[in-house]
Description:
Helix 1 (about 25-35) packs antiparallel against helix 4 (about 55-75), helix 4 packs parallel to helix 5 and helix 4 (about 55-75) packs antiparallel against helix 6. The longest helix is centred in the first third of the chain and has 20 residues, at about 55-75. It is built from 13 helices and nine strands. The protein is an alpha/beta fold and about 300 residues long.
Amino acid sequence: MILLASPGQGAQTPGFLQPWLEVPGVADRLAWWSAVTGLDLVRYGTTADAEEIRDTAVAQPLLVAAALAAYEALYGDGTGAAPGAVAGHSVGELAAAAIAGVLSPEAALVLVRERGRAMAEAAAAAETGMTAVLGGDADEVLAAIDKHGLTPANVNGAGQVVAAGTMDGLAAFADEPPAKARLRPLSVAGAFHTEHMAPAVDTLRRLAPGAPVADPRVTLLQNRDGAAVASGREFVSRLVDQVSAPVRWDACMATMREIGVTAIIELPPAGTLVGLARRELKGLPPLALKTPDDLAKARELIEEHS
């Protein structure tokens, strides 16, 4: 069984969409989705610098649009083929919802447009941030995060946890790190997936009930607990709440094992999630779909594992 994985914020790099514009239809789709989001997605994905695409209100729609464009390039051959399962990390869940048929691409992009704006506003209200914790004993890492009033905002598996909270708390955490752990501050605007994002949750709760929603047509995993969610409306409700709740990618990978996933393809900007899979899901072939040059390999993997 093939699982498509859609990455989260921080995966974007300047110019990553440039080669995809050579794929027939991609530029047209991005032009249409630029109208939906009110952003020049082509410019942001090709010529914008790292600081511009770091902006939460830009990065989130850009990531979802990129994943959907690559998905259409991979599966849009008119045969009706589809992956066996799909999952997204944080904002990647909106791309996953569209791929699974829970939301239309346009509905997903409207929601991510408002999500990005609301999270950017929430992040601007206080000095907060995030720090990746690599290695160390899992229990000791979580205890140290809690000691400093922080939240394990991303529990990614493979020995990786992201601590999030106030900058003072993160500074104290850095002064007293867990044994045998390496800390790496992340270039993000705020403490995503923590209580600091509560205002963004309120915004999305007012908006989401009006979105047209269908039940997923493929297995769709959700970040809160890795569960395969069969109700589209429940998935969207969970997606909204997830903005202020930790991402449990470790639980998603555990579910991948349980449901019989045999290969993973990460949509662009790919690399982060297949790296975690290589360390946590040993023996499962992961493929990073970085550029159109990788489409042939991805199709071969799909043929082999479908």
